[in-house]
Design brief:
The structure is a homodimer of 173-residue chains. Chain A is α+β, with helices and mostly antiparallel strands. Chain A has helices spanning 13-26, 37-44, 104-118, 133-141, 147-150, 160-168, and strands spanning 4-7, 52-57, 70-81, 85-95, 123-129, 145-146, 153-159. In chain A, strands 1-2-3-4-5 form a five-stranded mixed beta sheet, with helices on both faces. The interface between A and B is large, with 79 and 79 residues. Strand 7 of chain A pairs antiparallel with strand 5 (123-129) of chain B. Chains A, B: Belongs to the acetyltransferase family.
Chain lengths: 173, 173
């Protein structure tokens, strides 16, 4: 199937927001989604954007029964390693179920890897759920390392009350 | 012991670089450190810095036998969650062994949490090694969640040849 990968524009944010929710449902955590297309427009398309996004689009004749032609996205931002320097983090990679198996996910992540090379960023990282074997297999088949399995890295989070409490305890000076 | 926490300046980069290596040795991966104080100066102190850093400093009379007064650091950068919006990632938190147990690590991470609140960032994340129980216990005691244990998130990495190959396979359009 024909498809194109291009940089997202503010006009894509409603579709990105729709697909963020589809991905969260797939990941069994839809109640965690708190932002809408308005925040995405503001945060991703200002002078110093907080993220970058690629969109996968199919021609009109391949639109699905709901009329969608924007069928996948890759959302990433720039990060930093104190060991390696400038790096990239892939926050989300998603292709709608009915458009999978056509090379769209591969094309999206390859384009993000191309951005890494163009911008001299030496590493691309992401997080995947341990029960999500289709995704894990997809990444590992392309040469990725599972650092949690091989080195023992665990992802740790402060939010809500724990973050508030921590901030309140900051020294004055 | 008296100490202060302040924003790092370019003049701190040699000490930050020294402590990055000390932390990498503690984490048993010193051979992974490829950047020096020069990259840190360039990447952290330009107009659009790739990271931010706090330094913990003790008064002259508490310097250690090597003469160091800069005894800890917290290096962080801004990230993005498609579920929650603007977030912060704590790449490194380190206090020199002989200065531990004095509240310096707690003060450093509390200051980063304060930055989160000031900048309306709803989440602070980091990665810790599963065998590093002093660090894990430190974070969990302060209310952090271990997302790898509770939700099954694994950290996945592309670098070196795998990243090169992925980039080469990107579609032209």
């Amino acid at each position: 199937m024909e498809f194109t990968i291009r940089a997202a524009t503010p006009e894509d944010c409603k579709d990105i927001s729709r697909m963020i929710m589809e991905l969260a449902i797939y990941e069994k955590m839809p109640d965690q989604v708190k932002i809408s297309h308005k925040e995405l427009e503001q945060d991703g398309f200002s002078e110093n954007p907080f993220f970058h996004c690629l969109i996968a689009e199919v021609p009109e004749q391949h639109k699905n029964k709901e009329g969608h032609t924007k069928v996948g996205y890759a959302l990433y931002f720039y990060t930093y390693s104190t060991w390696k320097g400038r790096t990239v983090y892939l926050e989300d990679l998603y292709v709608m179920p009915e458009f999978r198996g056509k090379g769209i996910g591969k094309a999206l992540i390859s384009k993000v890897a191309q951005v890494c090379k163009e911008q001299q960023r030496v590493r691309l990282q992401l997080a995947a759920l341990d029960w999500n074997t289709p995704s894990l297999d997809f990444y590992l088949a392309k040469g990725a390392q599972d650092l949690t399995a091989s080195e023992g890295w665990h992802l740790i989070r402060f939010d809500g009350e724990a973050l508030d409490k921590l901030a309140q305890e900051a020294p004055k000076n």
